[in-house]
Amino acid sequence: MSVVEFGGSGPGILLLHGLMSRASTWWTVAQWLKPHGRVVGLDARGHGRNPRRGPFRTEDFVADAASAIERLDLGPAVVVGHSMGGLHAWALAALRPDLVRGVVAEDVVPDNRGRSVDEWRWYFEAWPAPFRSLAHVRTVVDVPRVEELFEERADGWHLIAELDDLYEIAAEWGERSYWDFVDAIRCPLLVVEAGRGALPAGQMAEVVRRCAARGLTAHHVVVPESGHVVHDEAPEVYRGAVEAFLSGSIPPV
């Protein structure tokens, strides 16, 4: 298990990053989350400094998150996830409701069936191998905090995650619906949607509608100006939504 202890005390807050990312990219978010509890970020298997490579089923990631909550005595925790991490947060809340007291899911949908990694594999295969410097990385890879996703080796700069692992992880999403997890959630939920994201329309609103229909506290916030990584591209809007959710929707431990 590879975690980042960001600080804070009290109720646990577990941060789950997206595909290709790592726990340390949550640093800025973690600073304003610390007054709300003990903030811990988890490197997913195949990412960051986590030595575990596979298997990569959603349930394997969920088991890792559950183990982190139990071993670090974080539960019941608020689980905050971006993209892949948001999917794993939904699944964790569904499969281990005893460990989760609230979920924040950022720009993720439960059904990507029919989509293939081949739609974006070409982009990664066009990268130079290796990059010559971090400046070189930044001219090609346009994602927030990109410098944290690469490491310097003897021959240059490489993505920390293995591309074959990323392809395997994402391939499952094109073959499987996750509505059953959404329908099993029993805790308060906030869904933050990127207005300039590229995910199928309407699904995030439907997640909240289904949860609210079961009597759950469920909120849907759309951020029109933001791309996929809302917590970095529209940080003040994201912070306002999350802090309001934590203050008004999550029962105290």
TrEMBL record:
Keywords annotated in UniProt: Hydrolase
Superkingdom assignment: Bacteria
SUPFAM superfamilies documented for this protein: alpha/beta-Hydrolases
Family matches, as InterPro entries: AB_hydrolase_1 (IPR000073), AB_hydrolase_fold (IPR029058), Carboxylesterase_BioH (IPR050228)
Pfam families per UniProt: Abhydrolase_1
Domain AB hydrolase-1: 13-126
GO molecular function: hydrolase activity
Protein name according to UniProt: Alpha/beta fold hydrolase
